Amino acid sequence: MSHKWADFFLQGCAPHMVPLSNQTVRDPKDFKRFQCDDAWELGRRLRDDMPGLHSIMVLKLKVNGVATLVAKTFFGKEYFESINQIDPFLDESRAYEHILLNCPSSRLSYFPTYHGVILDLTREKYPRSYALRPRAIVLERVEPSICCPRNTPASRLSSIRRFCSKNRRSASL
Q: How many whole angstroms separate alpha carbon 20 and alpha carbon 101?
Protein backbone atom coordinates (compact mmCIF):
# COMPACT_ATOMS: atom_id res chain seq x y z
CA MET A 1 0.00 0.00 0.00
CA SER A 2 1.49 3.31 -1.08
CA HIS A 3 0.93 6.48 0.99
CA LYS A 4 2.34 9.93 0.65
CA TRP A 5 4.66 10.70 3.56
CA ALA A 6 2.71 13.82 4.53
CA ASP A 7 -0.63 11.95 4.55
CA PHE A 8 0.79 9.28 6.85
CA PHE A 9 2.56 11.76 9.13
CA LEU A 10 -0.43 14.08 9.48
CA GLN A 11 -3.09 11.42 9.89
CA GLY A 12 -5.19 12.18 12.92
CA CYS A 13 -4.68 15.93 12.61
CA ALA A 14 -7.61 18.23 13.09
CA PRO A 15 -9.93 18.08 10.05
CA HIS A 16 -9.90 21.89 9.78
CA MET A 17 -6.24 21.80 8.78
CA VAL A 18 -5.67 23.74 5.57
CA PRO A 19 -2.52 23.15 3.50
CA LEU A 20 0.03 25.89 4.04
CA SER A 21 0.06 26.81 0.36
CA ASN A 22 -3.70 27.54 0.51
CA GLN A 23 -3.51 29.85 3.52
CA THR A 24 -3.34 33.60 3.29
CA VAL A 25 0.05 35.07 4.12
CA ARG A 26 -0.10 36.35 7.69
CA ASP A 27 1.77 39.37 8.92
CA PRO A 28 4.82 38.33 11.00
CA LYS A 29 3.57 40.71 13.72
CA ASP A 30 0.81 38.13 14.33
CA PHE A 31 3.26 35.25 14.93
CA LYS A 32 4.17 33.90 18.34
CA ARG A 33 6.81 36.22 19.85
CA PHE A 34 9.86 34.96 21.70
CA GLN A 35 9.30 35.81 25.36
CA CYS A 36 12.03 35.40 27.95
CA ASP A 37 11.99 36.99 31.39
CA ASP A 38 15.57 35.91 32.07
CA ALA A 39 18.70 37.57 30.70
CA TRP A 40 19.48 36.38 27.18
CA GLU A 41 22.13 37.15 24.60
CA LEU A 42 23.14 35.99 21.16
CA GLY A 43 26.49 34.25 20.96
CA ARG A 44 28.71 32.73 18.29
CA ARG A 45 27.36 31.16 15.15
CA LEU A 46 26.96 27.39 15.19
CA ARG A 47 28.80 26.73 11.94
CA ASP A 48 31.95 28.49 10.84
CA ASP A 49 31.89 27.06 7.33
CA MET A 50 29.24 29.51 6.09
CA PRO A 51 30.25 32.76 4.34
CA GLY A 52 30.12 35.75 6.65
CA LEU A 53 27.60 37.63 4.51
CA HIS A 54 25.24 34.70 4.00
CA SER A 55 21.64 35.93 4.27
CA ILE A 56 20.82 33.46 7.09
CA MET A 57 22.95 32.80 10.15
CA VAL A 58 22.25 30.46 13.08
CA LEU A 59 23.56 31.78 16.39
CA LYS A 60 23.62 30.29 19.87
CA LEU A 61 21.07 31.97 22.11
CA LYS A 62 22.18 31.92 25.74
CA VAL A 63 19.63 32.23 28.52
CA ASN A 64 21.32 32.87 31.87
CA GLY A 65 24.64 31.96 30.26
CA VAL A 66 23.51 28.55 28.94
CA ALA A 67 23.07 27.98 25.18
CA THR A 68 19.99 25.74 25.05
CA LEU A 69 18.36 27.62 22.16
CA VAL A 70 19.36 28.84 18.72
CA ALA A 71 18.29 31.94 16.84
CA LYS A 72 18.12 31.52 13.09
CA THR A 73 18.66 35.12 11.99
CA PHE A 74 17.67 36.67 8.66
CA PHE A 75 18.33 39.89 6.77
CA GLY A 76 15.32 42.19 6.38
CA LYS A 77 12.68 41.50 3.71
CA GLU A 78 13.99 44.41 1.65
CA TYR A 79 17.22 42.48 1.04
CA PHE A 80 15.33 39.50 -0.41
CA GLU A 81 13.08 41.75 -2.48
CA SER A 82 16.15 43.47 -3.95
CA ILE A 83 17.51 40.13 -5.24
CA ASN A 84 14.07 38.86 -6.33
CA GLN A 85 14.06 36.02 -3.83
CA ILE A 86 11.24 34.74 -1.62
CA ASP A 87 11.73 35.82 1.98
CA PRO A 88 12.92 32.65 3.80
CA PHE A 89 12.10 34.15 7.22
CA LEU A 90 8.45 34.49 6.26
CA ASP A 91 8.28 30.99 4.75
CA GLU A 92 10.00 29.28 7.66
CA SER A 93 8.18 31.14 10.42
CA ARG A 94 4.84 30.40 8.69
CA ALA A 95 5.78 26.71 8.61
CA TYR A 96 6.58 26.64 12.35
CA GLU A 97 3.35 28.52 13.13
CA HIS A 98 1.45 25.98 11.01
CA ILE A 99 3.06 23.07 12.87
CA LEU A 100 2.31 24.69 16.22
CA LEU A 101 -1.37 25.18 15.37
CA ASN A 102 -2.11 21.97 13.49
CA CYS A 103 0.26 19.18 14.45
CA PRO A 104 -0.98 16.74 17.11
CA SER A 105 1.09 16.80 20.29
CA SER A 106 2.17 13.20 19.68
CA ARG A 107 3.96 14.36 16.50
CA LEU A 108 5.51 17.61 17.78
CA SER A 109 8.60 15.73 18.96
CA TYR A 110 9.63 15.31 15.32
CA PHE A 111 10.35 19.05 15.09
CA PRO A 112 12.62 21.33 17.12
CA THR A 113 10.58 23.20 19.71
CA TYR A 114 9.53 26.56 18.29
CA HIS A 115 9.83 29.42 20.82
CA GLY A 116 8.68 32.24 18.55
CA VAL A 117 10.12 35.04 16.44
CA ILE A 118 12.11 38.18 17.15
CA LEU A 119 11.28 40.98 14.71
CA ASP A 120 13.43 43.80 16.02
CA LEU A 121 16.96 42.66 16.85
CA THR A 122 19.19 45.65 17.46
CA ARG A 123 22.95 46.03 17.34
CA GLU A 124 23.02 45.91 21.18
CA LYS A 125 21.65 42.34 21.17
CA TYR A 126 23.48 41.17 18.04
CA PRO A 127 27.18 40.15 18.01
CA ARG A 128 29.23 43.03 16.62
CA SER A 129 31.45 40.73 14.55
CA TYR A 130 28.56 39.85 12.22
CA ALA A 131 26.38 41.91 9.87
CA LEU A 132 23.11 42.66 11.65
CA ARG A 133 20.20 40.41 10.71
CA PRO A 134 17.20 42.01 12.46
CA ARG A 135 14.77 39.07 12.39
CA ALA A 136 15.09 35.65 14.00
CA ILE A 137 13.27 32.38 14.60
CA VAL A 138 14.05 30.95 18.04
CA LEU A 139 14.24 27.15 18.23
CA GLU A 140 15.39 24.43 20.58
CA ARG A 141 19.05 23.58 20.06
CA VAL A 142 19.30 20.03 18.76
CA GLU A 143 22.71 18.38 18.54
CA PRO A 144 23.76 15.07 17.00
CA SER A 145 25.11 13.90 20.34
CA ILE A 146 24.24 11.29 22.92
CA CYS A 147 24.18 14.16 25.43
CA CYS A 148 21.25 15.83 23.67
CA PRO A 149 18.05 15.04 25.64
CA ARG A 150 16.03 14.78 22.42
CA ASN A 151 18.16 11.81 21.28
CA THR A 152 17.83 9.87 24.53
CA PRO A 153 14.89 7.90 25.96
CA ALA A 154 13.56 9.48 29.17
CA SER A 155 14.40 6.33 31.14
CA ARG A 156 18.14 6.79 30.43
CA LEU A 157 18.30 10.59 30.55
CA SER A 158 19.64 11.02 34.11
CA SER A 159 22.51 8.54 33.61
CA ILE A 160 23.42 10.15 30.26
CA ARG A 161 23.45 13.62 31.88
CA ARG A 162 25.85 12.37 34.60
CA PHE A 163 28.09 10.83 31.92
CA CYS A 164 28.12 14.02 29.83
CA SER A 165 28.80 16.37 32.75
CA LYS A 166 31.60 14.09 34.03
CA ASN A 167 33.23 14.02 30.56
CA ARG A 168 32.93 17.80 30.16
CA ARG A 169 34.68 18.31 33.50
CA SER A 170 37.50 15.88 32.65
CA ALA A 171 37.94 17.43 29.18
CA SER A 172 38.39 20.89 30.68
CA LEU A 173 41.12 19.74 33.08
A: 11
